[in-house]
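Suppose you are handed a protein chain with no further information: no name, no annotation, nothing but its sequence. What can you learn? This example shows the usual starting point.
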Amino acid sequence: MTGPLASLNNEQIVSILLKAAHIVDLTEHVPGRVTLKVYLWDLPKLAFIFDGVNPEGKAIRIPGLKDFSVSVLQGTATVDYDPSILPPELWEQFGKIRDDPQYEPVFADRLKSVLAELSEKAQ
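A reasonable first move is to predict its three-dimensional structure. Written in C-alpha cells, the prediction is:
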C-alpha cells in the first residue's frame, strides 16, 4: 500500500471515518456505492479529516474503498466500495451517526471487526 493513508492502523481508519460521519449525510445507498451530502462549509473539514488526500486523485487507502469523488457543485461525495469487504449494513450505520451518535460505537466495533478480519487474511 502506498500514499498518505498507507501507514494507517485500524484505529486510525476508524477514527477518520467516525469524524467524517459527523459532517456528512447519507443520501443514497446501493450496495457498492454511497452518496453523501457534503455542505460547502464542511468541505474544508472533510479535507482536513482525510489529511490532504486528494479525493479526485483516488488516493484513498482504506481497505474496501475503490473510489472517492467530490462534486462541489452538487455538494456531494460519492464513495464506491467493495461490498464483499465493507458490508452494506456498515454504511447504513455510518449514515445514522450524524443524527444519532448512539450508532457511533456500533459502527466503530463493526468496522474494527471487519478490519481485523482483513488483517488476519493478509497474514
